[in-house]
Specification:
There is one protein chain. By secondary structure, the protein is mainly α. The chain has one domain. It is about 65% helix and about 0% strand. The chain is built from 4 helices and no strands. α2 packs across α3, α2 runs parallel beside α4 and α3 packs antiparallel against α4. The longest helix has 23 residues. It is flat and about 55 Å long. It starts with 9 loop residues before the first helix and ends with a helix. About 25% of the residues are buried.
Length: about 110
């Protein structure tokens, strides 16, 4: 294609794409954090900001996975993911974040 060669060198167009391998458990954990954030935002939209909720959800999934790796509720794991501990931390941290933000507003 002659039009693309102006923007991309010829050797870049002919080089094969290098796929990046992402572990499936990472994608599922990310999906869990995003769904938890969205659900918490729908249930209490006025408290705290969406990015704060997203940070709390990522922290909750990381803490849940860390405890799952240590053996807390390890028998409830689905593959490498520990959704029960993740969801418990997600609910607790989102609830605490909502309570804290409402106390700050008063």
């Amino acid at each position: 294609m002659p039009g693309l060669s102006l923007f991309f060198p010829r050797d870049r167009l002919d080089s094969p794409a290098v796929p990046i391998e992402v572990p499936p458990v990472l994608l599922i954990a990310l999906l869990l954090a995003l769904l938890g954030t969205q659900t918490a935002y729908l249930l209490a939209p006025r408290a705290p900001h969406y990015l704060v909720r997203l940070g709390l959800s990522v922290l909750a999934v990381m803490l849940g996975e860390a405890l799952g790796r240590l053996g807390v509720a390890a028998h409830l794991a689905i593959g490498e993911l520990h959704p029960v501990t993740d969801l418990v931390f997600l609910v607790v941290l989102q609830w605490a974040g909502t309570r804290w933000s409402r106390q700050q507003a008063v």
